[in-house]
Amino acid sequence: MNPTDQLRFAINDRINNIDVSPAHVSLALLGEFQKEVGDFLKGSSRDVDPAKVMVSIEDGSLAIVASGLLAASSLWADLEHLKSPDSLGLIDPKRASVVERWQAAAQNNPHRGYSVADKLTQASFFSIDSTSNFRKIEDVWVHVEKYLHGTVVDMGGSTKANVHLKLENGETLTIASTQDKLAQGEQNRLYRPALLQVTAEENLLTKKLRNLILLDFEVHQPCYDEDEFNLMVERGTKAWADVPDATEWLEALRGGHV
What distance in Å separates the CA atoms of residue 150 and residue 153, rounded to the nearest whole number? Predict the structure, then answer.
């Protein structure tokens, strides 16, 4: 959640060799900019109600400050994405359309520019001028082999065998398998932590996975093994038995003593 609820949308331009400002702006440009700011705020999900958004007009060259945006979660998420030029494929399509229109306008007019910033801190989320290159990267899926850790919340299937694995972030993945593979082993895996080796297709942009297929259940022992720990201590004690002062020996290795 963003700590502020105010955004400052600014447009720069020149009309008749005079910088645009609240005292010098055409009715057409003011109306166009106001509509585009409204479209950007609403997006497709309409998590911003324009009727509840208060605005003020400021210098610089012409700026609209919108407040009452704290609950607009998708808006703040899209603004974070727009800090990267490769973000148009990740944000709301209506907001992406506004950014594309602003970019086209700036490329056709060397005086035109746009910026969106946090009103309170003045930190910029993104700006657009004639050199901007916001773009949409097409989805690229690559074949990967991964290890996934989570909790098995469901498994089986009379026709299509699969495993439902709940990850630590709360996301649940459906992983295709076979009845024979799920029947292997005597261990009850349901509702227990598991480490799965899978193949999948991974989106290079979003890191999402699809078409997951189970290769194997890996041995997974997340608990503390006291016997194994004691064995390591015993081996370490024997290895250091001939060292009278371990601290001094370590300092000497580090160059602490001449």
Answer: 9
**What pLDDT score was predicted for residue 1?**
40
Per-residue model confidence as pLDDT tens digits over 191-229? 999 999 999 999 887 788 999 999 999 876 555 566 766
State mean pLDDT over 78-97. Answer: 92
Q: Where are the domains of the chain?
A: 7-128, 141-218
Please tell me the predicted confidence (pLDDT) of residue 223: 59
**Does the global pTM surpass 0.70?**
no
**Cβ 73 vs Cβ 1: under 8 Å:** yes
Give the pLDDT confidence score for residue 60 in this predicted structure: 66
CB 218, CB 195: distance < 8 Å: yes
Reading the block at residue 120, the tokens are 């309170």
Q: Class for domain 141-218, per CATH?
A: mainly beta
Q: For residue 77, is it left (φ>0), alpha (ψ between -120 and 50) or beta?
A: alpha
